[in-house]
Specification:
The protein is α/β, with parallel strands linked by helices. The protein has a single domain, classed as Rossmann fold (3-Layer(aba) Sandwich). The chain has eight helices and nine strands. It has a seven-stranded mixed sheet. The chain has a two-stranded antiparallel ribbon with strand order 3-4. Strand 3 and strand 4 form a beta hairpin. The mean pLDDT is about 95.
Amino acid sequence: MSDNPYEAGQLLADYLLFHYGRDQDLLPWPDGPRSALGFPRRSVDELIDPESAGGGRALDVGCAVGRSCYQLARHFDEVLGIDYSASFIAAAEAIRLEGGTAVERLEEGRLRTAVEVLRPAGVDPDRLRFRQGDAMALDLEDLGGPFELVHAANLVCRLPDPARFLSSLAGLVKPRGQLLLTTPATWLAEFTPVVNWPAGAILDYLRDQLGASFRLERQVDLPMLIRETRRKYQWTMVLGSRWRRV
């Protein structure tokens, strides 16, 4: 059995619903925080500079089951999604090829219901590719050279050595290219040894790690809602930032 927590069956179903589920399937309560829905899409839409994102290639590191890749494909000719989880990548590829799937949505206790999730419309799936990989061991030559844009959503605080990943980004992004990062800064020792946590605030840490090669262009707070059961949700305010490769 894999020791990767993201290989668990129910977690995969939860991520598919989080990425591709309809708003009403995620949040049936009319008084709920609807502005926090659609985070994988908004992590692109609310950060990207569309005027400098026409054609070329984009890389989505830590793409999970791939929804944000479709949003990137609205701007780029080719999008490569990479994730450490083999089951996530297999699910992303199945959605790309088959157009959708059914997932078991946890309601409460042992109760589950089947919900269909669909590939986003209006995007050529042939623009997308998915592969398994380690964010801290990306081979630039193997990836085909640098990209016009790199996107990494909620990845930094889930890596054993985030500084190692951040130091690799200068080589992954072309000069004048964009780097889109989001993070809730929810540091946990089970993912990142405490010795590798930032000493201060996350934005200061990102400035320290990226400042030699990137200029901060945009900072925004992005609400995010994750459904656990019909009556229990995680609401998080995620820091989003756009950086320009100098």
